[in-house]
Every structure is written in C-alpha cells, then in structure tokens.
Structure prediction request, 398 residues.
Amino acid sequence: TFQFDFATSQAVSFPEFPSSATMMQSILLCILCCFIFLVEVTSFSAPDVSPATNCKNEFFSWKQQQIRYQQSGPPSGPPVLLVHGLFVNSDHWRKTIQGLADAGCHVFAIDLLGYGYSSKPKIGSAEAEAVNGENGRPDVLKSVALGSADGRSTRIKDIDLKHPTKSPFNFFTWSSLISDFTKEVIAKNGVCLVANSIGSISVLQAIIDNPSLYSGACLVTPNFRELHKAEVPLSDLAMPVIQTVQKLLREKGQGLFDALATPSTVEQILKEPYKVQDAIDDTLVKVLLDPLLIEGASDIVFDTLSYSAGPLPEQQLSQFPEDKPVWICYGKDDPWTPPARVEALMSKPCVGKVIGWDGVGHCPHDEAPELVNPFILEFMEEIVATKKSQGFNLLSLF
Prediction:
C-alpha cells in the first residue's frame, strides 16, 4: 500500500499501489493530524527568554523580516548554527544548545522564515516575493539519480525545483537566510551547520550556494521528502489527487482548526516519531505548540503540505563541494526514515560518516543528546584536525 505519514506529511512506499479512494483517505488523515497542532489564531509573541533553553530570544532584521534566534556559549568558541525541521523551531534544539555551549562552542539556533517566532509574510504579497529565494533559479533539474528505500536501487528522475504556489517558504529562501545570518550575525569563518530533518536540505543548499562561509554539515536525520513529485510512486496518477487536496486545504482549511489542538493531543502526536518517549515533556509540547498559534502560521502549514518540489538530498550531495565534509546520524527506530537509504548516502564523496542508533527515533538530538552532542563535537574536531594537517591557519576557521 501507499500511506501518508500524518506528522511529517511524508509518504511511505510499499509494494502495492492503492485505490484513489484509499489514497484520499490517507491524505486526509495526514492533514487532519497536522491540524492537531493548530487552533484559533492567537496574538502570541516571543517571550523574552525561551522556557526551553533559558536563552534570550533575539531578532535579526532580514529583508524587512524579523528572524528569531538564540545563542549560547563563549563568543570565542567555534561557531555552530542549528537549523530545525518541519513545523518546529529553534527551541527543539534545547538539549543541543546547552550541550555544545557547555563544551565551549558558540552556538546559534535560528527560526527559519515562516516558522517559530520569525516573520510570516503573506503568500503572494510584494514582501513575500521580495524574499523568495527561487527568483532566478532554474525550474527543473533533468535526469537526477535518486536513492530508494532499499538502499540499492537507483531511480532517474526529473526534479521540479520551484514551489508550485510560488511561495517564499522554500529551501532556496532558507538557504539565503542562513547565509545572510552567518555573514551578518555570526560574522565568522568556518561555521559548522547542524540540521534535523528538512532543515538538512536548507543547510546543504546554503553550503552549495556559499561554500566559503562554512566548514561542513552534520545532519541529524536527513529527510527524503516523500511527498515530492519525484518521490511519489506513479506520480502521474497520484499527484493530481494530492494537488486537489492541497488546493482544497489552502482555500478552505481554516475552519477545521477550531478546537483540534490541546497539549495532550500534541503529546500523543509526538509519540510516533519519538522512540524515547520520556523526552516528551510539558516544556517540549508548549514550545512547539505556542508559535503555531500565531497569525499566519496556519497558512504556512498548508503551504508546506503543498511543497511537492525543491532539491533532494542525493542530488545536493552529488553536487556538494568535496572539501566540505558531511557527517550523518539517525535513529534506527525512526518510523519515517528508511535506514538503508540513509546508509547509502555514504557513497557520496563528501560524506565521511553515517551512523545509526538503536532505540532512537526521528529526533535523536532531543531523544538521545548523550549520543548526538558527542557526535557533533567529534565532527568539529575532525574538521579542525583535517585543516591543520593541510596547513590551514586554525584562527581563520573561527
């Protein structure tokens, strides 16, 4: 069968393709569960201090938009920028921020445009068009080699790169934001990028676009975006159904929000991706739910559910600068990420290490920081050791 995962809006492929009625039911289940994160719009604003990290909430003015970020650790330490995943925000890095700062890193975590407490320009507005990173980009990449769930097969696909709604909430916009933030706020060379889930695509694109700013990328669970047109099985048949539902939700979905979100329901939703369920606490639920109640957040949820285009990991890693190393970690009990496809990324020249952990789900950084934080620090130490052996001035890295 072909099922849609309700919390990540991903599709999972199995040998048999379903009837259109079954597919429609699966899509609607996906959408309704996403609504659990949303209720009536509220005028939330960011607290002065994050209840998850005890860090001050700061704002970076970017192209007339306000971008929320946090920082911790000694300013003289090696710089690290953390980039979150789908429907969450920088507070999801609560254990990574503390762990890396305690180890002497200067840690930054950002809310991508449209997420968390960052600005949410109205789709279709002049200000949204002004920040859209897809401007000037190609529409399609032809004949790209992509992986498969079994880790052995290769599929040759054309990749549509541009958001079907012309939305600014896309990986090219976020790449531009990450690089401008790096230049203007961090203002150091050799920044290490760390990302979870779909954040991994944003950071890979940032390094492809501006390699001189970065030392490399550490990916905590890459995301293969199974609702991407290039990933959907029998897409010529499936995509018209998917696109019909996406359009309906963008135009008529707001009325479904009322009374569908409670902390207890969010907690239940998180139990699917989190194998380590003791990590799900009241603070986590609050910091993930509150920003989703801000005006405009629902539009971005629907917009993200319609984003069946953009770059994909194998394509990015195939064009990645080989002097920018990539390490990858993931949870072997992640219900959404096929382990064999992750392991197959080791074949890319830039990928130096792939490691999976038993008993960990989709969010290893929050479920098992005792594994992830040392992994990130080892990655950073490896970068320094490599550059030193090549005769680089270490001060130029940081």
